[in-house]
Input
Amino acid sequence: MISPTKAGEMFFEPLKYKKEDFNENSLVLSLLSNKSINIDDAVWKKDATLTKGFPCQIRFLKAGDEVVNKKEVTLYRLDIKRLEDIPDKEMEILNTVFLESSVIKVWVSKEGNNIVKISINYKGLEYIITEHV
Output
């Protein structure tokens, strides 16, 4: 379940997913799992999926080094392209947000190689996902 917090609770409902909605190549699952992630800078990875086996290509572009929550991190821009043409009315909201975002930023811990923060710009709003600290 993906739930909004603070002011977001007034505007958005939680998104609920089942384990079957993801597979081992799921980008969404790897971004939110807090597990170590292997990133090849500036290389298109073609075997990724979003939810429900929705095939896509992803590419991480290194943008620099920063400190987030007292952790040394590397900032990446994440680009996503769909591989198959699927009618928009059949896409789930999570797939739509990832594919139609103007900028997706991902901060990866240098120590554990896990994601500590994600920023998604969608329709003029910025959505931020952070690990619990």
Remarks:
- The longest strand covers residues 55-68.
- The radius of gyration is 15 Å.
- The mean pLDDT is 83.
- The chain has one domain: 8-130.
